[in-house]
Amino acid sequence: MMDKTRTRVAVAGLGAIGADVVRALDQGIEGLSLIAVSASSPDKHRGWVAGLKSAPKIVPIDELAEVADIVVECAPSKVVRSIVAPVVERGKTAIVLSVGALLQNEDLVDLARAHGGQIIVPTGALIGLDAVTAAAVGTIHSARLVTRKPVAGLVGAPHLVENDIRIEGITEPLRIFEGSAREAARGFPANLNVAVALSLAGIGPDRTRVEIWADPTVTRNTHRIEVDSDSARFSMMIENIPSENPKTGRITALSVIACLRKLRASLRIGT
Ligand SMILES: NC(=O)C1=CN([C@@H]2O[C@H](COP(=O)(O)OP(=O)(O)OC[C@H]3O[C@@H](n4cnc5c(N)ncnc54)[C@H](O)[C@@H]3O)[C@@H](O)[C@H]2O)C=CC1
Ligand SMILES: O=C([O-])CC(=O)C(=O)O
């Protein structure tokens, strides 16, 4: 029987991030129960899901909000709206990984506000959002992100296709984009969530500057942030080991798990 004091969590998408988050919930996170998952091809995942201790239900994404208190979105950006809207409309919590999609669906935040729901964006593949959100309480003068990714982490991005920029076979680092976080999200919807996360933590998608390099000399997805504010100046770099999905760093799923642990933890560290 379900323990009513536990918060019911559902996970939408069982790819690189979602599968790790499901495994962690199944192994146990204080105060949380894994109740349901969604997959684009349920039959492919049925055996794996049945083998979990918690044996969550597999339901379509639009049913997750009914059965869970918290829904973790780990799916492609095009389905973010159909996952998040029903959750926040019910005054519940959505943890969103496809952060870039929030820029095309800004009203989701208004919807959450109107119904007492909440959208949580974990630090994900980035570093330092604790410091950025703290600095944003004061005044941030500038925020900049420089991303370097191996070619495999960038191929197929709309910005490259639309501008006929070929990166397969390059032998030296090539700067493929410079612009705002909003433009980066449009041009690299599956590769630059970090730019949008930084911008939402700091000075917004239009003032946050982004540079992207396709770099055949790196094996890791590398992000450097530089922030100048009236309380501190800082720069930080993270070098992410790609997961089974070359666009996604391994640390991203761990960031979600850390975020879930914080929800009900007796000791909570960090902003
Ligand atoms: N915030 C951050 O720092 C980061 C965010 N991301 C984003 O997180 C999201 C998930 O990333 P990954 O796990 O690496 O992607 P992935 O491609 O490995 O997994 C996505 C999964 O969603 C499933 N899916 C597609 N449509 C669905 C539907 N209608 N219902 C249920 N499942 C569906 C796919 O079959 C796939 O298994 C992506 O949008 C990615 O861009 C990725 C890395 C870092
Ligand atoms: O660094 C990573 O692994 C993922 C990334 O850039 C993103 O999705 O924004």
Query: What is the CATH homologous superfamily assignment of the largest domain?
Result: NAD(P)-binding Rossmann-like Domain
- Per DSSP, the total helix count is 11
Q: If strands are numbered along the chain, what order do they take across the biggest sheet?
A: 3-2-1-4-5-6
Distance from first to last alpha carbon: 35 Å
Structural class: alpha/beta
Strand content: 15-25%
Poorly predicted sequence stretches spanning 5 or more consecutive residues: none
Name the overall outline.
globular
Keywords: NAD, NADP, Oxidoreductase, Pyridine nucleotide biosynthesis
Pathway: Cofactor biosynthesis; NAD(+) biosynthesis; iminoaspartate from L-aspartate (dehydrogenase route): step 1/1
Protein name: L-aspartate dehydrogenase
Function: Specifically catalyzes the NAD or NADP-dependent dehydrogenation of L-aspartate to iminoaspartate.
Explain this structure.
With 271 residues, the chain is an alpha/beta fold. The protein has 2 domains: 7-124 and 251-264, Rossmann fold (3-Layer(aba) Sandwich), CATH 3.40.50.720; 129-240, 2-Layer Sandwich (Dihydrodipicolinate Reductase, domain 2), CATH 3.30.360.10. It is built from 11 helices and 11 strands. The chain has helices at 16-27, 42-50, 64-67, 80-89, 101-104, 107-115, 129-137, 158-162, 181-187, 193-201, 251-264; strands at 7-12, 32-38, 57-58, 70-73, 93-96, 118-120, 140-149, 174-180, 209-214, 221-229, 233-240. It has a 6-stranded parallel β-sheet, with helices on both faces. Helix 9 runs antiparallel to helix 10 (193-201). The longest helix is centred in the C-terminal third of the chain and has 14 residues, at 251-264. The radius of gyration is 19 Å and the shape is globular. 45% of the residues are buried. Bound molecules: 1,4-dihydronicotinamide adenine dinucleotide and oxaloacetate ion. 1,4-dihydronicotinamide adenine dinucleotide is lined by residues 12-18, 38-40, 61, 74-77, 79, 97-99, 124-126, 190, 193-194, 197, 245, 248, 252. Pfam families: Asp_DH_C (PF01958), NAD_binding_3 (PF03447). It catalyses: L-aspartate + NAD(+) + H2O = oxaloacetate + NH4(+) + NADH + H(+); L-aspartate + NADP(+) + H2O = oxaloacetate + NH4(+) + NADPH + H(+). Keywords: NAD, NADP, Oxidoreductase, Pyridine nucleotide biosynthesis.
